[in-house]
Amino acid sequence: MASFPPSRSDTDTSSDSAKKEIPIRHLERVKSTRHLETVLLTEDEKERLLKIVTEEYEKGLIGSVKPEKAQIEDEEKERETQEEETKDVVCRRPTLPRGRLGSSGRAFANSCVFSPDYDCQDCSYVRKPRLQSIIQSTHFKTYKHRFRSAQVNRTLHHPALYQPKMRNEKKDLGEQKKTREKHSFVICADTQFGILMDGIPMKEPNWDTEVDLSRRAVEKINAMKPKPLFVCVCGDLVDTESSFSSATASWKKIMRKWEHEVIMDQQNRDWKKVWAQLDPSIALVCLCGNHDVGNRPTEASIDVFRESFGDEYLSFWANGTYNICINNVLFFDPTGAPKMFEEQLDWLQDRLEYATKEKAKQIFVFGHYPWFLYHEDEDDDRVLSTSSPPVGWGAPGAAFKDSYFNIPLENRKFVLSLFRKHNVKACFSGHFHQNLVSKTSWGMDMIITGPLSLVLKSNGKPKSTEPDLNGMRVVEVGDMDYTHRFVPL
Predict the structure, then answer these.
(1) Bridge partner residues of 485 (DSSP)
(2) Separation between Cα atoms, residue 456 and residue 244, nearest integer Å
(3) pLDDT for 85-103, tens place per residue?
(4) Taking Cα atoms as reference points, which of 385, 369, 198 lies closest to residue 290?
(5) How far is Cα 52 from Cα 297, in angstroms, rounded to an integer?
(6) Are strands 445-448 and 426-429 parallel, antiparallel or unpaired?
(7) What is the pLDDT of residue 92?
């Protein structure tokens, strides 16, 4: 099969091309993408290829492929429908029940507020990315002790964090046993490759700035002495999950689903290339966020994440502490994958009981969404503040409702009761794009770490000693306690 985009050498541009048969790889490419424009062919080749595809479609041989004209008509209808939905969502901003927000785009749009004079139909600042300038390589690459090779069978596989296992009918405790006086780990969040081009007019949209921020973070972590046992990136690794097509005016609105997927695939490859530079002695945990699997995750969107990064939830021991990493995007809205939600909830309950039974020194939980921002019992009526992006990103006066950034109260209560029962020490998250530390009535810390991408600022957040800047959080773990500090880049 030809690479994407295929090199010009793969195609025949000679004057007698009409006499030659079309290479099978081009036909296969059209069948897989359903778009003739992704294949570099001459006009004669395109015309003859379209005829072949149309004939096969009419015969029912390739039912998923439509003739180009019908495909374009369908896409135009779909785009008109999306525009109408976006107009209704952004302009009227209907109140929808939490956890039942529908598509990711609708949820995102419903979270936005604008200045009174904002024209929600204005797309003048939109710059559509050129795929040929973005897509570099589709070659598959594996990484030792990283991503899919590390996040397997609901645990973390890394030589620095040897997990318990049975050997000759005797249990080898590995990291379940405390062997160091203290250890550290690092929290990063919202690397979100592509978020800046989502709101800033660029002649050539790209995610170079986000790549640079991640590179600087990796270099800073590699220089730490002593080195942390692991790094956990708490979701929103990249930005372009395809269900965000109805978000506020941006290039996402004017591109088709398959184009979103191609861009996201490249973002994932670029992300792994950067974070694979992390010192081999440091384990890496990659969690999914709503921009990785959608505000309303489905089995299909979660499978896409698994293909790139491995298990979306897992647990592991580290120097006597038990660490539980979850896909809590499903707790924001479980309706797209209810079976997967129930399975994970059962697993979470089982892991907490296991950690308690095995007398873990401390239990830490990691996820993308904060369970709450300010108070464990907060709901939408109590969180009335908004968070604004820097001037120049997005539409004038754009801001996000802070209630968009927590887990709905009805989905939160049971989980927090489990955390209280099993004495969870702290939960770590991102998603809020700014630093915030809160505490439950029984003493569990809810620690939100600022992003390695776009920084937001809330008008309802209490004063903090931590600056709202790009950076990461270093956590020092002792015997029965821990400390943490935010480290700006």
Answers:
(1) 474
(2) 19
(3) 444 333 332 233 345 344 4
(4) 369
(5) 37
(6) parallel
(7) 33
